């Protein structure tokens, strides 16, 4: 799949890009699976560390790459945590895909209107919203309405942290190498 | 961190704050007026308002069980039954959740609007 996506690039660049993306997929997978071990008092409440990786890939490479990383991350994390093709797997799949779409859309105005912080918050919010909607469709009933405000607030706090960290990583990488990939 | 924030970010944050405030207000209203119904031997022994701090004693075949309502939750404080399963159940507050004491024939059930209940918790 990776080879089909980057067929048009020269050979040496394609290798670098494929390797870097594979490393980033691994990082995101590790973050997602370790995070799933943390017991949460409220359903859906998570830190979303893997979201930061998705954001950076979207910024450095683009939409297709971000989508690929997210898909691989969700499937691999599902394999590791043993939740592949269980209801919770579809929750994280739908949430991850929506977050990628929203963040890629907002990144088009990144330098003028948004920073990575705001984009990360929007991604976290749509991730949570989609998960909640899909969960409600799955059980055919609105799930835990009383948790919703907490969920929105949590997406602001977690998104802010993750966005800030991604920004620092982005700046550090640019400073050190002058370019990415 | 502040110097990196751009106008769009502030809009997003404010929008989400308002959204959570609105949902919080509307759902808190919906959650009001919840009650716990106490059954003893199949008969309704009392209806308790969960918003009101109170104690409630109910007499079963083995003796007196004491219920306590605090902060929207209800729990069995003491019971004459041997295994104390009802006391170990702890505080309940979600609609449809129950405290059951089989030896003393007591059942406490929370009634409330169905949209506020959880079928299951997923992660």
Distance between the termini of chain A: 19 Å
Work out the largest interface and the residue count of each chain: A-B, 37 and 31 residues
CATH topology title of the largest domain in chain B? mini-chromosome maintenance (MCM) complex, domain 2
Helix-strand sequence of chain B:
HEEEEEHEE
Q: What are the secondary-structure elements of chain A, in order, as H or E? A: HHHHHHH
* Number of helices in the DSSP assignment of chain B: 2
Spatially, the strands of the biggest sheet of chain B line up as 2-1-7-6
Q: Unreliable runs of chain A, pLDDT <50, ≥5 residues? A: 1-6
For the report, how would you describe the main beta sheet of chain A? none
Average pLDDT score of chain A: 85
User: Number of DSSP helices of chain A?
Assistant: 7
The CATH superfamily label of the largest domain in chain B reads N-utilization substance G protein NusG, insert domain
Secondary structure tally: strands of chain B:
7
Domain count of chain A: 1
